[in-house]
Amino acid sequence: MVKIQIEGQILDLPPDIAVNDDAIRRAIAPVFPQVANATFTRTDGPDGVTLIKVTKRAGTKGTYDHVLKHLKDSPRHVNPIFPLYQRLYQNDARLASPEEFFSIQGQLDQALHAGEAELQDTNTILTRLASAPGHASRRTPVGF
Description:
Layout: E1 2-6, E2 9-13, H1 21-28, E3 39-44, E4 50-55, H2 65-73, H3 81-88, H4 98-103, H5 105-131
Parallel strand pairs: 1-4
Antiparallel strand pairs: 1-2, 3-4
């Protein structure tokens, strides 16, 4: 007879499932998804009972390699208001005169409009992502 100890519970396990660790994972993963990264320790007990103890291991929460590569490869961009802000307040130096301020008024207007447009685009994207319906995956997640 084979028993498995998981999450403080001891359950009977059919011998045909207990043949190897992969078979155990496939059988109990729908109920206990944490077995995807778990280790199994077998001990023989009295009366010919084999106890398989499940020890959880920390694993990754997903694969973000593709997303991270895409972000790294994307062109660099800084909201246009930031360089202008740094220019205006560099070393805490204020503009010397109103004339100097008016001379950069056009750049300021362009930077503000571009920054507001980027903010609006970002909010639109977030709204669309939040309202997008879920779709079935073509791949089965590990543990299901």
